Amino acid sequence: MTHFPDSAPPAGVDTTVAHSARVWNYWLGGKDHYPVDRELGEQILSTYPNIAVDARAGRDFLVRGITLLARDEGIRQFLDIGTGLPTYDNTHEVAQSVAPESRVVYVDNDPMVLAHARALLVSSEEGATQFVDTDLRNTDRVLEAASELLDFDRPVALSVVGTLGHIPDLAVALDTMNRYKDALAPGSFVMVGDHVMPEDPGAATALDQWNEGAALAYRSHTPEEFTSYFDGLELLEPGVVPVTLWRTGGQPMLGALPDIAMQGGIARKR
User: Fold this and answer.
1) At 266, phi and psi to the nearest 5?
2) Average per-residue pLDDT in the chain?
3) d(CA 16, CA 74)
4) Neighbouring residues of 202: CB distance < 8 A, sequence distance ≥ 6
5) Are 30 and 22 in contact (CB under 8 A)?
6) What is the reported pLDDT for 9?
7) How is domain 20-246 classified at the CATH fold level?
8) Domain locations in the chain as residue ranges
9) What's the pLDDT score for residue 255?
10) How far is CA 98 from CA 95, 124, 217, 229, in A?
11) What is the reported pLDDT for 193?
């Protein structure tokens, strides 16, 4: 595996403590990470090996969801919050492979992601992409900036995958999601994927390791807490499920058992 040059980090990037986007990138087989990220990533893998499956499954869920929304639901506007580092099948690549005129706005405030934002701004000639550098809780700023490219009077697909657990307080996370949901026009869709604690005791230990070693802590969900992100919306089949079972023909993907930490769903706003 090749790695980002450890001797020349982008401006504002702290290489002394592990960061979410970089560790996730490591689990996905990317190259944009540093020794501290790999060390924490390996520590967690030794405790809960399924975390690498969670990471890949979360990305595959995003790809399947964006494909469905562009191909089957006719969505041409996408707001991707908590973008992470560019890897494979980024949202604009997936959407524009189906509908080249698609418009995509990415939102993240990780300095490493910002340094690589140019990779996320390579659009098809017919479509467009934009990057917003801010915290997802700053909903007014996000929506104002995104409205430069997206028309919120028309349907938009909002995707938030692997991000809401970084908001320490569930009530704040729910309020943040409600603000975004309120801004969406009827016919819009909300895609959410996040950590729901499985029965595997190693998952709880791995989460403790993450919170001890990473710059930004993560909060897991109960199934009921996670499902509440979709309150007021119409869930698409099969509802809220482990992402390895979402629209996969009933067979777990990646050879994973259904009891994994990443769950997801997509819902329509009426």
Assistant:
1) -130, 135
2) 90
3) 44
4) 47, 48, 49, 50
5) no
6) 73
7) Rossmann fold (3.40.50)
8) 20-246
9) 52
10) 5, 11, 36, 28
11) 97
